[in-house]
Specification:
This protein is α+β, with helices and mostly antiparallel strands. The chain contains 11 helices and 19 strands. The chain has 2 domains: 2-203 and 335-423, Aminopeptidase, CATH 3.40.630; 206-330, Alpha-Beta Plaits, CATH 3.30.70.360. α2 (16-27) packs antiparallel against α5. The radius of gyration is 23 Å and the shape is elongated. The two termini are 27 Å apart. Residues 202-315 form the Peptidase M20 dimerisation domain.
Length: 429
Amino acid sequence: MTDLHDRILAAVEAGFQAQIALTQDLIALPSRRNAEHEAQRFMAATLTARGYQIDEVATDPDAIRDHPGFSPISEHASTAPNIVATHEPRQVAGRSLILNGHVDVVPEGPHEMWSRHPYDPWRQGDWLYGRGSGDMKAGLIACVAALDALRSLGLQPAARVHIQSVVEEECTGNGALACLVAGYTAEAAIIPEPEDECLVRANCGVLWFEVAIAGQPVHVREAGTGANAIDAASRVIASLRKIEARWNAEAPQHEHFRDMAHPINFNVGQIEGGDWASTVAAWCKMQCRIAIYPGDDPAVRAAEIEGHLRQDLADDPYLSSNPPQVNWNGFFARGYVLEEGSDAEDTLRRAHLTAASAPLQSLTTPGYLDGRVFVIYGDMPCLVYGPVSEAIHGFNERVSLSSVQRVTGAIALFIAEWCGLEAVDDDQP
């Protein structure tokens, strides 16, 4: 096996420049929410060229609405399909696997605050820059490249493998859920999110909600007789900060979060309101996000937020009789804990040690991950493990290329042990 491991890692290295080029091609395709169509066509063509069977899975609200993992879909939901490519072995001798990654990216912000255009990927030293480079197009292409490396040796998995390129990961998680509901399961899953070459042990759940506040508009010369919805929004934010503090105080009750200083992060990510500089603002809307702990029921926590606002604002001169309206419009997702001791984790530990020459470390993350779909609802170990990245969701997002190579090698080694190997089917391209 040592000789085979060396050959696999050498094959990853030999194909790495082509892997970087493929990653750059994908980064160059803007794929914000509901604009992922071209990127998904690219992924479908890339996987078709390799001989995989391709399925387009729609994120159909009617198919997943009654599933306990469903998150509310807004009018902004993506209509781009999820792409699932399937490898079938000639003879099953190993264990099945899902390689999952999301193609959607978050808005890039003002382009003038980037060093270069965010969709003109560039290399500088060990870093590859561009929106989505780390989160997570490098990881998605690493899944393809790991299989390419095996094929370059005349080998392929001796088990069924699904490669999933999904949408809606940055806002609902419904893309991965739709693939699960469509019947795509396996004995383990890997998601190469940018996690510093660590394995995610526990992960927060996330709630998204809109807060709408109605004001009483008057001419600004009579401002004292009206009610400014934007001013009122500041008091709603202050109230929500109280629940953030209260939930953070619960951290000692949660094994994987008790040593984390601030696991529950509340954020107002977008705010708009008012119609005229000389008119007291008649309306204000805020798009908000807050984390919850693994084991928390999103419906219970959502009701807690609504109840808190009613109680906390009961003495507010205006909001007590004009309460803010809360609309749940995205993530309604549980967190998860990856239990220790699975064969899949042990396999990854060996693969990482060989590829990185260092023991695999675990971490807890307070952000959302699609891993919850597989762990909670698919009853399978999901190994969220990917490269070192910086400034994801920020300016000059970048991913370490040497780290990408190590992660690609680890995934290829994992496939070799978990799925087993057989000679390449001569009918494949």
